[in-house]
Write a structure and sequence with these properties.
Blueprint lengths: L11 E6 L7 E2 L4 E17 L10 E18 L4 H10 L4 E7 L6 E15 L7 E8 L4 E4 L2
Antiparallel strand pairs: 1-2, 1-5, 3-4, 4-7, 5-6, 6-7, 6-8
Length: 146
């Protein structure tokens, strides 16, 4: 019997490009969670029953567009806070990669995007933590590892 080999947290990374030529990508230290999200916009058409015009029509959805984002959770540091704040105020797209390194699924999704949400929070005697949402501005492209 075959069993799955799960992708674990350490098998993935979310890396920001530095904008230089050649561009260097790295994941800032402190990431504690990543969520890859898809928003699918749909519309519907009512499909009538051709055999019985008085029957209730079937509502058939179809896709209009798909958007993709990545939610990041992190522990804030002296390096992370200014990086994320800079990305929040940045007016141009930044290149990023969502890396997966697991067996036959080695490679990354790559493309431009912008930070669309950022929050820092803290509690007494605790670390400052943060959440951010990265939204791709173009469909990310899968690039297999060489």
């Amino acid at each position: 019997m075959a069993t799955i080999i799960p992708i674990k947290f350490g098998d993935e990374a979310f890396q920001f490009g530095d904008g230089d030529t050649p561009e260097v990508f790295s994941e800032p230290c402190g990431i504690t969670g990543r969520s890859r999200n898809f928003s699918i916009n749909t519309q519907t058409d009512d499909l009538p029953d051709c055999d019985d015009p008085d029957a209730v029509a079937f509502e058939a959805p179809y896709k209009i567009s798909v958007g993709e984002s990545v939610d990041l959770q992190f522990v804030t540091s002296a390096l992370m806070e200014p990086l994320m704040t800079e990305l929040a105020y940045n007016e141009t797209d930044v290149n990023a990669r969502y890396v997966i390194n697991k067996g036959t699924r080695d490679g990354y999704y790559a493309g431009p995007g912008i930070l669309t949400a950022l929050s820092f929070s803290s509690e007494r005697r605790g670390n400052v933590t943060g959440t951010a949402t990265w939204t791709w501005t173009a469909k990310p492209v899968w690039v297999p590892a060489p």
